Amino acid sequence: MAINDKALSGKVALVTGASRGIGRAIAVALGRRGAKVIVNYASREDAAREAAAAVEAAGGQAVIAGFDVANSTAVTDAIKAIGKDHGGLDILVNNAGVAVNGLLMRFSDDQWKKTLDTNLGGAFHCTRAAASLLLRAKEAGRIINITSVVGEMGNGGQAAYSASKAGLIGLTMSTARELSSRGVTCNAVAPGFIETDMTAEHLPEAQRAKLLEQIPLGKIGRADDVADAVAFLAGPEAGYITGQILRVNGGMLM
């Protein structure tokens, strides 16, 4: 099936953690295909409004929704409001996450809890709250979880982050098995190293050069690379794909 640039017209999509970086790029990509995008943010309302403006500039509609995905009550209330205000929900992208890095032996309970509660708990809370809306979607509902290459291969100094992203893979497959009988698909996108504000701030030049040696394509990815994969999985072209992990990593893990 050829990709229809407006294949998501009439669809309502919620993208968590969409105020910047990969989440913002995903929101824009869905808007470009015609979706109405709910731009979720935890604290940066100004950035969320800028992301919403970018979605509209790309040809979509956008509204912002501030809530913390780690708070199950806030998630339930927010998604219930989305269903009421926008007539339902067709696409859920669980992107919100934090990266708290540190050596395993020095990692605190609070750091562990924050990472798991946001990255894995947040996706669980949103999926559980949105499931009934997605099951009533006009056509087939779509869930896309943003995991990571380190969820499959691990990484020193990222035990909690890797564990949370590995957990997302299990959540993806279990959700796909539970909801597939009603036509709802659930897949994950696993980015490798992507150029974002976070990597720009925390990746010294020497480490960047060493990293590039591990990537067969010889370059760090762009947020748009991930966003395009999500837009594909959200569209009609991916209607027979579920329970899969789409790796967007330049060949770093094959």
Topology of this protein?
Blueprint (H helix, E strand, L loop, with lengths): L11 E4 L5 H12 L3 E6 L3 H13 L3 E6 L5 H15 L4 E4 L14 H27 L6 E5 L3 H4 L5 H21 L5 E7 L2 E2 L1 H6 L2 H8 L8 E2 H12 L10 E4 L6
Parallel strand pairs: 1-2, 1-4, 2-3, 4-5, 5-6, 6-9, 7-8
Helix pairs in contact: 1-2, 1-9, 3-4, 4-6
Task: Give a description of the structure.
The strands form two sheets. A seven-stranded parallel sheet has the order 3-2-1-4-5-6-9, sandwiched between helices. The chain has one domain: Rossmann fold. The chain has nine helices and nine strands. It is α/β, with parallel strands linked by helices. The longest helix is centred in the middle third of the chain and has 27 residues.
Query: Which sequence of strands runs across the widest sheet?
Result: 3-2-1-4-5-6-9
Helical/strand content category = alpha/beta
Shape: globular
Structural domain tally:
1
Q: Whole-number average pLDDT?
A: 95
Q: Give the amount of beta strand, in percent.
A: 15-25%
- Order of SSEs: EHEHEHEHEHHEEHHEHE
Number of helices: 9
Please report the first level of CATH classification, the CATH class: Alpha Beta
Distance between the ends: 26 Å
Largest sheet: 7 strands, parallel
The CATH homologous superfamily is named: NAD(P)-binding Rossmann-like Domain
Outline the low-pLDDT stretches.
none
How many strands in all?
9
Q: Helical content, roughly?
A: 40-55%
